[in-house]
Amino acid sequence: MEPFATNLRRRAERLGISNAEVARRAGLSDRRYGNYVSGRREPDLSTLVRIANVLGTSVDELIGMNLDEQVRTSEELFQERIVAAVQALRSDDLQRVAIMIEALACARNDAAA
Questions:
Q1: pLDDT, tens only, 16-55
Q2: Closest C-alpha to 84, from 35, 36, 12, 3
Q3: Which pTM was predicted?
Q4: Which one, 13, 18, 45, 64, has least CB within 10 Å?
Q5: With 0-12 CB in 10 A as exposed, 13-18 as middle and 19+ as buried, what is 68?
Q6: H-state helical runs in the chain
Q7: Which residues are CB-contacts of 59 (< 8 A; sequence separation ≥ 6)?
Q8: What is the pLDDT of residues 79-97, one digit of tens each?
């Protein structure tokens, strides 16, 4: 159980999100998720899949079955953080985010020209 709890904590830290935020996004109570993070309990399969989706990773990585520890660049970690955050947004929020990203890309292109 300990590798799973460690992997949960590590993955949330990499994404820059709190345990409370992971719990909220997965539709779990803070207490229930806290039991998983502390290693006191293990989730059922459907809950495990929801948590993996929130954390933008695979079930295999969370339970420690992926033996190849991937080294990620800072850009890849930022992209993972963005994807995990976007999955928690509603449609109207996604529209605003898309507009902001497009504006940033346009400004970057204008500055490079």
A1: 899 999 999 999 999 999 999 999 999 999 999 999 999 9
A2: 12
A3: 0.69
A4: 45
A5: exposed
A6: 2-15, 19-26, 30-38, 45-54, 59-63, 74-86, 91-112
A7: 48, 49, 52
A8: 888 888 888 888 999 999 8
Q: Which residue has the tokens 């902001």?
A: 100
Give, for 68, the enclosing helix (H) or strand (E). none
Q: Sorting pLDDT into bands at 50, 70 and 90, what band is 61?
A: confident
Under 8 Å between Cβ of 19 and 37? yes
Per-residue pLDDT at 73: 81
Asked if 37 and 9 count as a contact pair (C-beta separation under 8 A), the reply is: yes
CA quadruple 20, 69, 60, 77: dihedral positive or negative? Answer: positive
Question: How far is C-alpha 26 from the geometric centre of its chain's CA atoms?
Answer: 10
